[in-house]
């Protein structure tokens, strides 16, 4: 019996006719990728959809929506080997309906959050051509079967990867499959295209460059495994990228990064990671990425991986603190940061369109749910509600990005070069009946006046778009008869920013005095609301409009 598992011949030769599957449903090409063509109208140099150079095998799996039933058979001795050395290939038989594949190399996969042992729901890497030359599964030499333990919708990988590709970033495709192991039903899995030379050939004319594996907490300055390449010992281009990212002079750094890195693609890669809240990717966690040395351009290209936890942490800002060295280094350069901001807006406008995203999501879910019901009826009952939750998170994220990127204040420019005069203020009444007027004082000053005769809160406000740093809001203020009451013991008059308390609370009477309020902006591209406020039982306050200014501190 053991020789059957190690048979030298392939039982599947050529391309047989496809059996009927419950999940087989021909659908139009992914609406996301069609929509991405709108990017061609963007400015010169803007992100373009990733255009495959070669054939795209397995369109039935990744575009037409076929959900294959994969039965894996592993001999007892090889099961024991996987228990002791789960990352080492053993031989298996794979069946899909009447089609049988022999000499399939198989091993377990998964990171700290997704790895499961054989007796649970393990994830697998399958290589169909490693022991049987020319053998392919729907045209694929290598694929992964992910257990999706961190994504109960089985949709994150597919949606995330399509968004990367729509942004011009080469990304392995994803679909779904059901899996049995030695006649034990494991359930629904996510089927992912392997990153091998077959994949690289779709996007690069030269596929013999080094492919580096970005695993947990790895980076260009640290030990990255070389998965493939003609000269795996040659790490000169990786070292050159690391040196470019650490160049202290920003102008020289930009030149060095443009020389060693496909910077335009990299900015698209960063933008999508942030927009889909890929908190476990390269930019935010130095995990789940690959780097390919494109020898034709002699530049490095970042590729996404492990996008099974997207749209979960939707409060990630458009300019979050970066942990990946190349990401952090690039966005410290003003010109590159501005290109990144433009890329965010382009993708939000042209790709992250809620109707297209949610309709596409619904179409995939409609294919998955009936197949899921055949392997786990209980899970299938609540499946569509989980999809609805995923859909809401996408909508929340896109709405949040729209508010931050398309409705935000214009970027400010400091004079001197660290001082910004503030003249555009708008009145706001939060409670009570305070009176707010912009008026000319007896001494010729233009003032922002707030007065109240009963408990109330009124303010003058303006928004500015600021990069990370230390700032001071400063201006001259005058008070007359400002009194608190039991209802507003934390009130007073003063300067602050939205969601922060007064640095110095003023009450009573006060002649013209310069009042400072210091604050820190932790992230670039932050929309900050500046506030001149009176919160009191009675009294009035004047803010000298000509003296109000924002100072950028060292």
**CA radius of gyration:** 29 Å
Number of domains: 2
> What is the terminal-to-terminal distance?
75 Å
Which structural class should the secondary elements be placed in?
A: alpha+beta
What portion of residues belong to β-strands?
25-35%
Q: How many distinct beta strands?
A: 22
Mean pLDDT: 88
> Count of helical segments?
15
Pick out the low-confidence regions.
1-46
The largest sheet is:
7 strands, mixed, barrel
Amount of helix: 25-40%
Overall geometric form: elongated
Please identify the oligomeric state. single chain
Strand order of the largest sheet: 1-2-3-4-5-7-6
Question: Can you walk through the features of this model?
Answer:
The chain is α+β, with helices and mostly antiparallel strands. It has two domains: 2-405, no CATH class; 419-553, Galactose-binding domain-like (Jelly Rolls, Sandwich). Helix content is 27%, strand content 29%. It contains 15 helices and 22 strands. The protein has helices at residues 2-5, 31-35, 59-62, 76-84, 156-166, 197-201, 236-245, 250-260, 263-275, 282-285, 325-331, 334-350, 354-375, 377-381, 383-405; strands spanning 69-73, 90-96, 99-109, 123-127, 142-146, 174-181, 184-193, 211-214, 225-228, 289-294, 299-304, 419-421, 426-431, 435-440, 446-452, 456-466, 469-483, 492-497, 508-521, 526-536, 538-544, 549-553. Helix 7 runs antiparallel to helix 8 and helix 13 (354-375) runs antiparallel to helix 15. The longest helix is centred in the last third of the chain and has 23 residues, at 383-405. The radius of gyration is 29 Å and the shape is elongated. The relative contact order is 0.10. Mean pLDDT is 88; it is low at 1-46.
């Amino acid at each position: 019996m053991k020789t059957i598992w190690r048979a030298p011949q392939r039982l599947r030769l050529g391309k047989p006719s496809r059996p009927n599957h419950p999940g087989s449903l021909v659908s139009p090409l992914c609406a996301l990728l069609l929509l991405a063509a709108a990017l061609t109208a963007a400015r010169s140099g803007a992100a373009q959809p990733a255009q495959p150079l070669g054939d795209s095998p397995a369109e039935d799996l990744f575009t037409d929506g076929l959900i294959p039933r994969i039965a894996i058979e592993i001999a007892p001795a090889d099961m024991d080997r996987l228990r002791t050395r789960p990352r080492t290939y053993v031989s298996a038989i794979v069946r899909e309906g009447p089609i049988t594949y022999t000499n399939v190399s198989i091993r377990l996969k998964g990171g700290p959050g997704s790895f499961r042992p054989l007796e649970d729901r393990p994830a697998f890497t399958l290589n169909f051509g490693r022991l049987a030359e020319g053998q392919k599964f729907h045209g694929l030499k290598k694929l992964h079967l992910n257990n999706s333990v961190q994504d109960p919708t089985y949709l994150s990988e597919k949606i995330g990867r399509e968004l990367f590709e729509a942004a011009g970033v080469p990304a392995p495709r994803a679909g779904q499959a059901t899996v049995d192991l030695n006649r034990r039903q494991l359930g629904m899995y996510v089927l992912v295209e392997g990153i091998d030379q077959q994949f690289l050939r779709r996007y690069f004319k030269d596929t013999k460059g080094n492919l580096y594996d970005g695993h947990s907490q790895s980076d260009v300055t640290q030990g990255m495994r070389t998965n493939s390449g003609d000269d795996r010992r040659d790490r000169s281009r990786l070292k050159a990228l690391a040196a470019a990212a650490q160049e202290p002079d920003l102008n020289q750094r930009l030149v060095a990064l443009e020389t060693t890195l496909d910077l335009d693609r990299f900015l698209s890669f960063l933008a999508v990671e942030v927009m889909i809240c890929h908190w476990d990717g390269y930019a935010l966690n130095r995990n789940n990425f690959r780097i390919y040395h494109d020898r034709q351009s002699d530049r490095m290209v970042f590729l996404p991986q492990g996008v099974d936890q997207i749209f979960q942490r939707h409060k990630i800002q458009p300019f979050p603190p970066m942990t990946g060295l190349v990401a952090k280094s690039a966005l410290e350069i003003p010109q590159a940061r501005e290109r990144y901001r433009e890329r965010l807006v382009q993708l939000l406008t042209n790709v992250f369109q809620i109707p297209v995203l949610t309709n596409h999501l619904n179409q995939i879910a409609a294919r998955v749910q009936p197949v899921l019901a055949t392997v786990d009826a209980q899970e299938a009952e609540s499946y569509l509600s989980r999809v609805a939750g995923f859909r809401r998170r996408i909508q929340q994220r896109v709405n949040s990005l729209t508010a931050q990127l398309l409705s935000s204040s214009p970027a400010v420019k400091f004079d001197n070069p660290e001082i910004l005069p503030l003249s555009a203020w708008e009145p706001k009444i939060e409670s009570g009946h305070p009176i707010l007027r912009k008026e000319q004082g007896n001494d010729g000053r233009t003032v922002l006046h707030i007065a109240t005769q009963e408990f109330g809160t009124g303010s003058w406000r303006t928004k500015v778009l600021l990069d990370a740093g230390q700032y001071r809001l400063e201006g001259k203020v005058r008070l007359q008869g400002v009194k608190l009451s039991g209802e507003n013991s934390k009130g007073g008059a003063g300067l602050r920013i939205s969601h922060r308390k007064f640095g110095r609370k003023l009450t009573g009477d006060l002649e013209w005095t310069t009042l400072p309020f210091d604050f820190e902006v932790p992230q670039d591209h932050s929309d900050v609301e500046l506030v001149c406020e009176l919160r009191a039982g009675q009294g009035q306050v004047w803010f000298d409009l000509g003296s109000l200014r924002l100072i950028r501190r060292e």
